[in-house]
Amino acid sequence: MPHLPPADGTRPGRGGRPRDPSRDGAIRAAILKVLAESGYAGLTMDAVAAAAGVGKATIYRRWRTKSELVADAVAELSSVSVEVPDTGSLEGDLRVLLHWLVGAVNGPLGAATLSLLSAMPHEPELREAFRSGPMGVWSAVFREVWVRAETRGEVQRPVMGTAVASTASAPILQRWLFGGEAVSVEFADEVLAEIVLPLIARRSAA
């Protein structure tokens, strides 16, 4: 498994002036900004340094290579708070989660992800960063929502990992990847009302 940098960007000392941890957030935000605007191929240490308002030496003090720099920024996205919703019903919890997903794919995370899709097959560090970062966070929160629904008796059999569970996010991700336009919360509500909930009801009745 590739070794990922710690989430705080801490690395062994390399000599010279000590690094300033307060700049880490601005640098990671700059990485996502440059990715969204220029793509992975157009991302350079110089471009990140300019977008973050720091010297290039500040970037190299934290990351040795471009792939290492991007993998660290992606892994850091796992620290973005995605609280497990607890509205009292599966329908309410799923609506909150799907609205959050719509906001994510329409925002900087979505734009940066699109720019990295072509690079990930050739960059093991990036694949691992996505798997253990944003995808790991999403799966954990989604799993908790299904488990709570089972506890409340809203679903009769485990759903996580089934095709029914996949229908909640798959239409949104498909439209985001191939639709070429922003995904609306109205579309997410339609997916929930016309696909997910009917499938859950049918599965429970079977």
How would you explain this protein's 3D organization?
The protein has helices at residues 24-42, 45-52, 56-60, 66-76, 90-106, 108-116, 124-132, 134-152, 163-178, 185-205. The protein is 65% helix and 0% strand. It has two domains: 21-76, Homeodomain-like (Arc Repressor Mutant, subunit A), CATH 1.10.10; 80-205, Tetracycline Repressor, domain 2 (Orthogonal Bundle), CATH 1.10.357. It is mainly alpha-helical and 206 residues long.
Order of helices and strands: HHHHHHHHHH
Secondary structural class: mainly alpha
Kindly give the count of domains: 2
* Arithmetic mean pLDDT: 82
Q: Under the CATH scheme, which class of the largest domain?
A: Mainly Alpha
Q: Architecture of the largest domain, according to CATH?
A: Orthogonal Bundle
Looking at the structure, the CATH topology of the largest domain is Tetracycline Repressor, domain 2
Please outline the major beta sheet: none
Radius of gyration: 20 Å
